[in-house]
Specification:
The protein is mostly helical. The chain has six helices and two strands, in the order H-H-H-E-E-H-H-H.
């Protein structure tokens, strides 16, 4: 999906060529078929080739992936997710970042009120 978002549209061969440690061509095609069945990509026919495109925008897919992550690994708890993010070793929040996060939380509280 990263490659499709970056390229906008690509064939299976182009996607395979863009991967650091690519699987076989048939594995790439199989994965694209699964992504298409799940509604993440679609294809256009360009002569003998299928050209794949993301079905939704990056923001929509980002939200879908984050919702899946939140539900699967954090039981739907935003608090647990944020706690994990900020308590990781090596994570240092500077004052400006804390202020931005605080503002985002305040805006969400106003929106939900």
């Amino acid at each position: 999906m990263d490659l499709l978002f970056r390229l906008g549209r690509a064939t299976a061969a182009e996607i395979r060529d863009g991967l650091a440690d690519p699987p076989s061509y048939s594995a790439v095609r199989a994965h694209l078929r699964i992504l298409e069945e799940k509604g993440h990509v679609r294809h256009d026919v360009d002569g003998p080739r299928y050209v794949y495109l993301p079905r939704a925008g990056r923001d929509t897919e980002r939200r879908r992936a984050l919702t899946h992550l939140l539900d699967t690994f954090f039981g739907g708890s935003r608090e647990a997710l944020v706690s994990t993010l900020v308590s990781e070793r090596g994570v240092e929040l500077d004052d400006a970042e804390v202020a931005r996060l605080t503002a985002l939380i305040a805006a969400a509280k106003r929106r939900d009120a």
